Amino acid sequence: MMGNKKLLFIPILLTIVGVMLLMFNYTSLGTFSSFEDKSNKNDEELKVVSFHGNYVEIDSPETFYEESDIVIIAEPIEDFLNRNHVLTYSDDGSIEDYFTETKVKIKKVLKSPSKHEIDLENEYKIIEPAVSVYENHKDEKVKLVTDSYMELEKGTDYLIFLKENIYGEYAVFLNMLGQYSLADKTIHQDSRRESSRN
């Protein structure tokens, strides 16, 4: 009988702690960050809330390449704030997940699965899983990031490593490890299609 009371008490305690955390997050989310994001020159300044994430460890660049489903060189075609920012919420109204759908112009395919055809003539949607934007209760735009992730910037070429997620979409793999700016490099259009198919 005593064991049943303990089992009933644990969910109640967890619920109370969860509600207290939600109340704290709701009242402080807009002022949590002490800095403003000025990384994207064309976007307005944003308050930033950063979260910690857990990632698998990769022991070598070769393993990282092998674990990636798609590797491309591409450039975002929209400013960050004009992209589709997606937030999902749990039943209690707290933010459960966030990401940004980013449209890119692919300049070169370095790796892609044989079942997945990539059309170089059209825009291609990728997922940036570690960043999104929403308006808080003060009508301020707030950028949510995981581990100080920096969004892909319009007008810059990137080497991007993508991994298929559970929804069949391709997302930047392992946060900042999955994207490298090629700002100093030029990609020639006549050599766009050197894909190594698996």
Q: Which characteristics define this entry?
A:
198 residues, alpha+beta, OB fold (Dihydrolipoamide Acetyltransferase, E2P), 8-stranded mixed β-sheet, 2 helices
Tell me the fraction of residues in β-strands, as a range: 35-45%
The secondary-structure element order is: HEEHEEEEEEEEEE
Outline type: globular
Q: State Rg.
A: 20 Å
State the distance separating the first and last CA atoms: 59 Å
Report helical residue fraction.
Answer: 10-25%
Structural class: alpha+beta
Mind explaining what this structure looks like?
The chain is globular, with a radius of gyration of 20 Å. The protein is an alpha+beta fold. The C terminus is likely disordered. Helix content is 17%, strand content 35%. It has a single domain, classed as OB fold (Dihydrolipoamide Acetyltransferase, E2P), CATH 2.40.50.120. It starts with a helix and ends with a strand. It is built from 2 helices and 12 strands, in the order H-E-E-H-E-E-E-E-E-E-E-E-E-E. A hairpin with a 5-residue loop joins strand 9 and strand 10. The strands form 2 sheets. Strands 3, 4, 5, 6, 9, 10, 11 and 12 form an 8-stranded mixed β-sheet that branches.
